[in-house]
Design a protein that fits this description.
single chain; 405 residues; hpI Integrase, Chain A; 3 domains; 3-stranded antiparallel sheet; 15 helices; elongated
Length: 405
Amino acid sequence: MTNTLPPGVSRESGRSGFLVTARVRPYPLERERFTADTPLAVMTAWRTAKIDELQQRRRELERAAAPVVDVLAPRPRRSSAVTTLRDDVELYLAEKINPNLHPCTRLQFERWLRKAAATDLGRLPRQLITGGQWAALLAQWERSGIPVSADDGALKADGTRRRPKAPTSLAVDTVHKIRTCWIGFYEAMNAGQELPNPARRIPRRQLAEIVPRSIPFTAALEIVAHVGRSGAPTKTKARLELMILLGLRPVEIMKIKPERDWRKAERELVVRTAKRGKPRVLDLSDGAVAALEALEALKGWGTFTSAPAARMFHDAVVAAGHVKLEPLRPYDLRHSFGTEAYRLTGDLKAVGEALGQRNLKTTERYVEGAVSGAVAKVCAGIARVTPKPKRRRGQLRAVDLGARR
């Protein structure tokens, strides 16, 4: 091997091998490692083939992105500016984003698209970004979180911003939402044009196993009975009881208007969901009626924060010593309602209707504890009725010596 190496071939520092690189702009640098005994012709051939492949891919994308020109129409003036991903993102957010999106979902989409446009991909044209580049960016966010900036903090009352939280690894559901956001961005920008959608080449993640979050129903009622320091009725205690006895979301408790939704004569409550679902009517038990009457006496209707409820609930669990769960959230009480409802009825569709869920896959998270408990009882019952084999001691098994010769 000569000391003079061709372009793109270099010795790796700290390793006994060679590094071969190929670059065709605007694509990122392609690298391949070879051992020290690899012939120079093999490395040069790999680099030549890789450059030809990248050039061919660039020509195909430029040909696909080229607009159809009418030869009879007057030619417009050629613009020197090239439309980049950053320009397309701002155009999409200003004019082409779905107006029916929930405000929270719209804020998430804006953040994810602007964060992607702030990377090195933002300087490239939209159609020149490959699916591999989108997948690499999403994999980086999945490992180390979405980078934060000074503008990500929420505004305080005095106009300043809070310090943004440090980025953490993303959950599988969040990764799927980001992938859906990027796919919708390309579909809106490519409307009426037969252009590829590289965001669809991002591989889907495998969903993690369902982890039941509910606690036993009786234990939940006993724990909530200890909420509060003096034993007097409180707003927090009444709201937590509604989550246990009716399976309400905290936001659904905020939306209750007693003069409209509480039918005292029929002992019914109309629940207005925040998930764009139809309102559902729930029958009220004596405990639920008492919780609603406590809220009415304490004037606890309207918006409330979950932080005080979480602290009081956690203090009650630690003081009473009923359940050893860390961390424990007030939202787990809704899960307990779903688990108990499925244990009593065995009807998954009815449990989903009572919880206000349209997707039964989501309802399965709430009934996992009930199913696991039922399976455990079945296995325990089979173990009790199955006779154990008895072994006679002092007796040897007969051995045919003639067969072993």
